[in-house]
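Thread: Newbie trying to understand structure tokens

Hi all, I'm a second-year student working on a class project, and my supervisor (Dr. K.) asked me to get a predicted structure for one chain before our next meeting. I've only ever worked with sequences, so writing a 3D structure as a token string is new to me. If someone could post the tokens and maybe explain what I'm looking at, I'd be very grateful. Here's the chain:
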Amino acid sequence: MTIQSLPNAADQASIADDQARVKAASEKRRRREGMQVIMIRAISLVVVLTLWQIVGSNIDPILFTTPIAVAKAAVKMIASGELWQYLAPSLLVFIYGLVLASVAGITIGLALARYRVLDAAFDMYITFLYSTPTVALVPLIVLWAGYDMTAKVIILFLFAFFPLVINTYQGVKNVDHKLLEVGKAFRCSERQLWGNIIIPAALPFIVTGLRLAVGRGLIGMVLADLYTAISGIGYLIVRTASTFQIDRMFVPIVTLGILGVLSTSLLRLLEKKVAPWTNANRD
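---
Reply by user tm_fold:
Sure, no problem. This is what the structure looks like when written as tokens:
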């Protein structure tokens, strides 16, 4: 029988040095790849803006505009406070609707996926409402809730709710049953199963649902402005378009796009914080 000797202090120091070198090399590679991504995006942005400028310069200003004209209009609208005047009420609706949709969507998604009775009872309603175009419900929502903020929040809620409930449901359903069996074998309580296995495993799906909900929420926000009260950033787009101020019309549109990109980036950072193993898997 062969007896293996334990590593001595010199071997342990060598292993620690190797691990440190691997970690440093990994960090260096990650930084290099990050810089490459930034460079590619910067070049892509310059190319797209240049093409937009060339194309826009050769089209009637009543029909299209250039990025330079949009930038000048944005400076004027920001300086006069006009952009914020219309953006602020829409952002308030966006926050209210997204928070409500997140709480309801994640809670219902978790419950449907975990409890078979609830799944059998309510799954068809979720599918029915998801398949129904939300735009078709807007007149009914206006009839019930009026034209003020309540109607806008309900419309945005409906746009953001379904990506959250469906992704959360799918995340819980994808939890490895072997992990649940191991947890039960170790006599974990239901609370421990939720906290240690189900929620961590479903977290990447939930964050993905949040990212989708942000995009759909922005669409719902503009749609709510168009169909309800004469206010918000949606109204600003319609008003500038109806008076052929195309450069000013592009300002709220670009603002919404930047808002979507920033929100998605923040959620990606959140995902790295709360579910770092998914980021590690990508690497």
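A couple of things are worth pointing out once you decode it. The first helix runs from residue 9 to 57. The two ends are 42 Å apart (CA to CA). Feel free to ask follow-ups in this thread.
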